[in-house]
Amino acid sequence: MQYTISKKFKSSVERTPRVLEVSEAFGLGLSDKEFVIYDNFKIEINDGDICYITGQSGSGKSLLMRDLAKLMLEDGNSVADIDSIEYDDRPLIDQLGKNMSDALRLLSLAGLNDAYLFVRKPSELSDGQKYRFRLAKVIESEADVWVADEFTAALDRVTAKVVAFNLQKVARKLGKTVMVATTHMDLKEELGPNLYVEKYFRDKIEVEHD
Ligand SMILES: Nc1ncnc2c1ncn2[C@@H]1O[C@H](COP(=O)(O)OP(=O)(O)OP(=O)(O)O)[C@@H](O)[C@H]1O
Ligand SMILES: [Mg+2]
């Protein structure tokens, strides 16, 4: 499927006394400006593609992914977004999987393969561990499309690479479409993306498709 993304913002600056001072000191104009982030950007995403979106902080990765996920949903796909995954505060092992071994499989795919963690509750986990738990629940979902913003952002890079490799492997086996976005650019080898997007400031963007 081909999707077209356009996104721009008009920035108007609130003129507080300090803003006016900064404007004068730095010669900064305060008139409304238009920022174009995507200008009729066309992108082709096929079922089963692994899509890796990278680029600097503030360049537009989250905006792109949110819009693509919305368009895919409108196209009739089911979408599991890591930011919408819900859970309660029971031990992890009780919150996913059809049975014990399925639960263990899902947790270790997401990089949670320590027995000590299986019996912990989400409220006892670090941010990176919680992220991996939500990722395990995304993998468990029946959805056609898996979406993960800030992918592995809070993880050490060894764990990040293991999680990235596992994610693409299970997604490819199940025929899922995956979209991940992160400023980290070190996961190309592990993800082996079908679609690689690198976003720069303004509307500059580079795309590699296999
Ligand atoms: N509602 C808004 N109004 C004005 N500008 C916005 C709005 N939402 C986002 N932006 C701007 O759009 C740009 C892209 O935002 P986006 O959240 O997609 O960045 P990102 O690449 O995901 O960054 P990060 O890596 O920090 O998450 C940013 O420069 C941001 O300031
Ligand atoms: Mg973002």
Explain how this protein is built.
By secondary structure, the protein is α/β, with parallel strands linked by helices. The chain has one domain (46-209): Rossmann fold, CATH 3.40.50.300. Helices cover 35% and strands 24% of the residues. It has helices at 17-26, 61-74, 100-109, 115-118, 127-140, 157-174, 188-191, and strands at 2-11, 33-44, 50-55, 79-81, 145-148, 177-181, 195-199, 205-209. The strands form two sheets. A six-stranded mixed sheet has the order 4-5-6-3-7-8, sandwiched between helices. A two-stranded antiparallel ribbon has the order 1-2. Helix 3 (100-109) packs across helix 5. The chain is globular and about 65 Å long. The site of magnesium ion (MG) has 3 residues, from helix 2.
User: Could you tell me how far the N terminus lies from the C terminus, measured between alpha carbons in angstroms?
Assistant: 15 Å
What order do the strands of the largest sheet run in, or round the barrel if closed? Answer: 4-5-6-3-7-8
Number of helices: 7
Q: What's the β-strand tally?
A: 8
Task: Please mark out the parts with pLDDT under 50 across 5 or more consecutive residues, or reply none.
Answer: none
CA radius of gyration is 20 Å
Structural class: alpha/beta
CATH superfamily: P-loop containing nucleotide triphosphate hydrolases
- Approximate shape: globular
Output mean pLDDT. Answer: 95
Q: For the record, what CATH class applies? A: Alpha Beta
Give the proportion of residues in helices: 25-40%
Bound molecules: adenosine-5'-triphosphate, magnesium ion
Order of helices and strands: EHEEHEHHHEHEHEE
Question: What percentage of amino acids are in beta strands?
Answer: 15-25%
Give the tally of structural domains: 1
